[in-house]
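> call design_seq(struct)
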């Protein structure tokens, strides 16, 4: 298990590793959450990975709702309590219903397009590729760039899940609440 970097061990290198993701006033152990506070144990890796992860979360061409559906299904497949804890709340904020969130867990959606998204994640998880029929179903609403972003969102959040699970990063007690996001400025 890797714990978040203790406050007394934070230095300029740890704070700078968060520069692409976190404003200067929040580059502190009490303001970034357990995941980032753990990743800065390896500042070079954090500096390389976080811009990619930030792209997936904030600049991707995927509609927010689809992005969160992909992340939730990915978190479910990997049993990543940390990702699920944060993104189930974020998903509701961007328009998913509680039923949609439950569907991300069960792999069953009432909406045909949402089902195509879940199927794509399932196919990536089990076979490392999206089948031609599922690619076509996704293409009814997503262009090529968006479908590429879907695949990379699965891959990026799978990588993050591997790390969070392996490091046993604890989910914050108030994760998923408005209080948590206010405290870290998200």
């Amino acid at each position: 298990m890797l714990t978040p970097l203790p406050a007394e061990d934070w230095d300029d290198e740890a704070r700078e590793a968060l520069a692409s993701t976190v404003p200067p006033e929040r580059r502190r152990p009490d303001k970034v959450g357990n995941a980032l506070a753990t990743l800065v144990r390896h500042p070079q890796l954090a500096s390389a990975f976080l811009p990619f992860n930030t792209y997936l979360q904030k600049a991707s061409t995927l509609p927010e709702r689809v992005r969160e559906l992909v992340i939730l299904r990915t978190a479910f497949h990997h049993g990543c309590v940390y990702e699920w804890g944060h993104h189930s709340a974020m998903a509701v904020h961007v328009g998913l219903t509680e039923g949609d969130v439950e569907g991300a867990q069960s792999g069953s959606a009432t909406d045909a397009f949402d089902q195509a998204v879940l199927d794509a994640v399932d196919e990536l998880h089990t076979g490392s590729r999206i089948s031609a029929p599922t690619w076509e179903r996704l293409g009814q609403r997503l262009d090529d760039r968006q479908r590429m972003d879907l695949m990379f969102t699965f891959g990026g959040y799978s990588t993050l899940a591997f790390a969070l699970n392996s490091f046993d990063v604890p989910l914050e007690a108030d994760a998923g609440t408005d209080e948590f996001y206010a405290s870290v400025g998200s």
